[in-house]
Chromosomal replication initiator protein DnaA (Aerophobetes bacterium), 257 residues
Amino acid sequence: SIRDDKTIQFRKKYRNTDVLVVDDIHFLAGKERTQEEFFHTFNTLHEARKQIVLSSDRSPTEIPTLEKRLQSRFEWGLIADIQPPDLETRIAILKKKAAIDNIELPDEVAMFIAERVKSNIRKLEGCLVRLVAHCSLFKQKIDLDVASEILRDILPSRKSKPITIEMIQKAVSRYYKVKESALKGKKRIRSIAFPRQIAMYLCREFTEASFPEIGTQFGGKDHTTVMYAFRKIEERKNKNSALLNELKELKKLLKTL
């Protein structure tokens, strides 16, 4: 309106409304003339005891180049921090939507979709619509296999939990029946030194940690000790089938932690 010189029409329309709802109010940042006009619109509506609802991706004080007088007015009312729905809420949304449309949605399918769509409710409902449309068209029953197939191109796969040094130490300790404190200790007897070398090898294999960083997590070992352990296991694994099997079993164990 300001750009097109239609401020009079703007004022008539928005200063005589019962409820003013403005989405993404943070876009006022840096727009001096727009802020000026909105300031007076806000005051007019507030004095007339009308309702004003504003949404933003940050609190008023965090909006850059927003005039102080607008910041203070935005803080006059109730400020509610709206977070993305949790898993149970997302499942409830899907089940409610399905119930409204008389659709039988298995719990495991609702869980499957809700675990992968965490913040976008439109996408959450869109997945359900797509699944229902497909099953209706091809006369299929809604189940987990069908959902996985139909939604595979729009749903992200579940990201595996990142493997940490602590997880590796725990897995190796459990597998070789050695205390974690012993892995980090100084004893060099084979029953402890070998699992320690395995753990160091796996840390280098599955984490982004450097040799010095790994050494620090094993009681302050020198980086050359870690390098030696890595090379030793790397050389032996291809010549020793038993060792190779142990490494495979440890990798499986890590996935369960």
Summary: The chain has three domains: 1-76, 87-151, 165-256. The mean pLDDT is 90. The first strand starts at residue 19 and ends at 22.
